[in-house]
Design a protein that fits this description.
287 residues; alpha+beta; 4-stranded antiparallel beta sheet; binds adenosine-5'-triphosphate
Length: 287
């Protein structure tokens, strides 16, 4: 095989709870992760040696700072028998620094893809361990789906797929730095009760989701403080017959889930804020 095309799906958080600050400086988290059909497209092509990253997005780094580059570098180090290199092309469709794990999913896709491209036996545990060194949510992006993530986000427990749901994802033209949101969260000391066990029970029984449970995001207040547009976006969603509206990760992306594809497409088509990134997508199962 000389080249390979693959998708790198984005994620949203159906719930994000911060249990506290750990001794190592990281936050102890409980999250429900969900993959969506919005995806970057990646092309991998063998070359004589080294790693080259090219992308459709002018703002993205193409050197070692690119998480996809880092994944390729780890792969080549772990498999020294491979003497060839790789050219990575990223068609960037997921907004950057938006709370949808755009960089993490590219890294995970490149790792997955390189195993295929060089026809190596797939070892998910090895891949997950390697990807964790790039970022806490990168191991999740390897297979995606509906997952309970804890620890720093790297401890994964697959849950039954919540089924195909239609949603609208809106990202204002405002990049949010994830560490900045966590820092403000710590300063605001906005700890709140969160009944995560009930959420997990709800998701495990494979019935319909009860949105009245604690499906919420502890980072909401901090993210809204940094980006007041989040509130404006939520207000618009309120008038669109959405079943459920929430920010994803550390924001500023806001998503709404609808009871039908038509309602989601209508809300996206009539979106009034012209500078926002808006798309109607669906939830997807693990890949
Ligand atoms: P998360 O939801 O994991 O917090 P995010 O969606 O908020 O992530 P990313 O889109 O992953 O944020 O981007 C965060 C930073 O990572 C940006 O500053 C960006 O320059 C850098 N980055 C490195 N590689 C990539 C990549 N392949 N795609 C997107 N961003 C990348």
């Amino acid at each position: 095989m000389r080249e390979l095309y693959l998708k790198a799906p984005a994620k949203i958080n159906l719930a994000l709870h911060i249990k506290g600050l750990r001794d190592d400086g990281f936050h102890e988290l409980q999250m429900i992760m969900q993959s969506i059909s919005l995806a970057d497209r990646i092309k991998l092509k063998k070359k004589s040696g080294g790693i080259i990253v090219k992308t459709s997005h002018t703002e993205l780094p193409t050197g070692k700072e690119n998480l996809a580059y880092q994944a390729a570098e780890i792969f080549l180090k772990q498999n020294p028998e491979i003497t060839q290199g790789v050219e990575i092309y990223i068609e960037k469709n997921i907004p950057i620094a938006a709370g949808m794990a755009g960089g993490s999913t590219d890294a995970a896709a490149v790792m997955r893809g390189l195993y295929q491209l060089f026809e190596l036996e797939v070892d998910f545990n090895k891949m997950r361990q390697a990807l964790e060194t790039i970022g806490s949510d990168v191991p999740y992006c390897l297979e995606g789906g509906t997952v309970y993530a804890s620890g720093r986000g790297e401890i994964l427990e697959p849950l039954p797929f919540i089924g195909e749901k239609y949603l609208v994802v809106v990202t204002p033209a405002f990049k949010i730095s994830t560490p900045m949101v966590y820092k403000l969260y710590d300063n605001l000391k906005g700890y709140q009760d969160f009944n995560f066990d009930l959420l997990l029970a709800n998701l495990k029984n494979e019935g319909e989701i009860d949105w009245q449970l604690d499906y919420k995001n502890d980072l909401k207040k901090a993210a809204e403080n940094i980006c007041p547009e989040i509130k404006e976006i939520k207000d618009i969603f309120k008038n669109t017959k959405a079943e459920f509206t929430m920010i994803s990760g550390s924001g500023p992306t806001v998503f709404s889930i609808y009871s039908s594809r038509e309602l989601a497409e209508k809300a996206a088509a009539n979106w009034p804020r012209k500078n926002d990134f808006v798309t109607a997508v669906r939830t997807i199962d693990s890949y």
